[in-house]
Amino acid sequence: MKIGVRKPSVKKMVKARTTGAVKRKVKSTVNPLYSKKGMGLVNNPNKAVYNQVYKRTSFSIVDIFKKIFK
Predict the structure, then answer these.
(1) How many domains, the chain?
(2) Straight-line distance from the first to the last Cα atom of the chain, in angstroms, rounded to the nearest whole number
(3) Which residues constitute the domain of residue 30?
């Protein structure tokens, strides 16, 4: 489990904002339960809990800049 600052990856950020958006759009049209609140906990509880803890215990340099220039 990572605690503290995460290393930013520009390559992963760009990929998440481009290809991921199309895939999410397709999945949400096929599966009506996709991306609904709480479905991660139903589908894979261990991964959902891990992700919640990870999000609360780590932060990115990008997050720091967002707070400063807000």
Answers:
(1) 1
(2) 29
(3) 4-68
